[in-house]
Protein 1
Amino acid sequence: MTPQNQTSTATATPAASQTDAKQTAWLYSTVQQFSKKHPAFPVGTLRHQIFNEETNGLKKSGAIVRNGRRVLIREDRYFAWLESQNAGAQA
């Protein structure tokens, strides 16, 4: 059971049989939910990153999804983007 206002979507790749189908779960969280789940990321920091998504590459990563006025964070893509930001520093 998912918490209130948290969306989980599953998609299946086409396959010959049900046993061969692979499923991927996408977890979306609001800014508040994400910050509560991951305390290392304060709400202000997340909002700053979202505000500057055009210049910091967050938009290109596909981690931010807008549904009306609601801003959702796709967790797997957000963490992939975060890791890519640190890739240049590890030389």
Note: Helices lie at 31-37, 43-51, 53-56, 58-61, 75-87.
Protein 2
Amino acid sequence: MDGKDHNVEPNHLNPAVFDFDTVIVASFKDLEAVHSWWSSDQVFELMKHRSPLTKMSLHTVDGLVSGFEGTKKRAAMGDKLLLLEISKIESFRPMQRYVDMYKRLATKAHKDIGTVCNLLFAEGISGVLVNEFPVQAVCASCWRTRSDLLSWYEAPNYQQDLMPLRYDFARCFTVAVPMWEDRKGDSSENMKRRGSAAAGMKLRGLQV
């Protein structure tokens, strides 16, 4: 959506801040559940095989809604897209205003733009498990269609009130990603997935 230069390096003098190509969002009941999962033997074994990943970061953030399980019915009938904003903060107070305003505008989105904004979180990072990207604040919302997402992103409130704060006081990468994506791959990739099944079981019942 914006901030591509922070995802794809424009030149060797300006390295990308967020040069990743995969996103996973998972919800946990509380911080204790996060650390229970993170310290489990299954995740420990899985992390031994992270060598194909050039970089990775795992961060926690306080959510605004309860997690939900991914089901075929939800994938067919529910929200389809996640609008994700990831920021490296250059000035704290303006970006605190940003996330506070983001939440306030989201609550009245139905009145302002005629579409409900299902906001998952809009906050500074509360904890770090792996830190290989300078993630300091994140906002995420769910949308049924791309046109609904664009009605939020292109609304005057967003463009005139939120966008200037982001551009002036942070380096941000904003991307729309599918919430439900078909798994594709050859047999060797499937074998790797089966090898990490134990860790995946730890996430059953969570939004991933």
Note: The longest strand covers residues 81-89.
Protein 3
Amino acid sequence: MKEDKIQVRGELALIPLIFVNSFAVVLMLYSGSGISAISSVPYGFNQVIPVISLGTWTYIFQGLLVAILFILKKRVYLPYLLSFVVGFFFGIAVDLHQSWIEVLPRGLAWRILYFCLSYLLICFGIALANRCKMPIVPTDLFPREFSQITGIPYSRVKIIFDVSCLAVTVFMTGTFLGHIKGLGVGTVLAAFTMGKVIGWIGSWMDRYVVFVSCMEDFSFHRNKHRRRVSLEKI
């Protein structure tokens, strides 16, 4: 029952999500196991054209994802525009974390710990982002919205999306650098398993927490206005 669950404001989750998820992306790369799939495309472009930072390539890629969602929706959709704004700050946070991450120790045991921690943080962050009812970064938004638009299960869409990102990165770095860069065992493992783990964590969240937000209120009043206008036309 909804009454038995803890009610959390989605606004309170948004800022921590941006900084924690961006940290997890940078930490996974620092672990040496490879970049996360959702950031592999910006990373590939950053390696080929390093004059543009990883954070900047991140929100360029996210802008492309938002444009694709506009095409699928066949209209400009305000929450998607807000998602791009969130993605812009996510890109800035990625560059911020990259500026200090080198201070962390880098032994083998530490690298294993970094990968496990970053993997769990990314999974938890995406599951939380999918439920906080606030604009989320486009790389998290795209699989969720594509699943809703097409009716394909989220876990399947997430895996296909991640693997497609890896394929683009392999092509980019292999073609222009002469070798594959940024991908490791951890990258492949994450790409093929994250969708399922996110689903498990999300199901666990759904049992205990319900999110409310100003965006939910906005959607309710907008839909109410549309129904009233439709009735007036009858």
Note: Residues 220-234 have pLDDT under 50 and may be disordered.
